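Hello again, I could really use a second opinion on something today. I owe you a coffee for this, so here goes:
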Amino acid sequence: MKLTGSKSFLLGIALIMSFVGALGAGVMLGTGLNWWLFAVFAAMAVLGSVCASKILKPVPDVGIIIKYNFPKDAGYYQKGKRKTTPVNDNDILYHLKMFLPFIQIGMFVFAAVLFSGDSHDVPQRVESISFDGGKAELIIVDQGAFGSYAELRIYNKEAEHIESIYFRSEDTTPTIDSIEGKDVYVSYRKFPGGDSILPYDRVMLGESLIDHDKLKFNYHFRNIK
């Protein structure tokens, strides 16, 4: 099979779409920047792959070229027979047809791994207050499309870390009001719902909620309407 000028152009466009889509989807997944863009890139990759497969469908089954390093018969083999002819267009197109999905998956995984990790966890705002026993810091961490959360860190007078808790901040930003002894007061403005006093299960996250009875401080959350 030989590609004409128009088919070569269409194949090139389809391959570009499939590769760019796979890379873009991997980047969006790894960074969590925008799930709509992830969907767009994923659709682009699928559409490009489908178009390329349709264009390459007439390519004959010539078999995959494999290199063997036999002591006596080392060389290239195709469909169990030694290949004696030069690589032609059908050989190249057949391999592209067979390995395109694996190339896309590899590019997607590579981009996702390369751009993953804590790179999307960006501290957005830091608030700190001092109290009789030491100092407290409130950090708002932006996770992009995954939303945000707040981390409250408490230190003693020697700047040694005592405790950290994690709680919600995607709907409204919390503020440290005061710390009196072992009581920590945190407030939200216009938190969803009509409650003035917010229980732990409304705001705390992860281990902070699960092990709230083991915390060294008592935390009080209120909603300022």
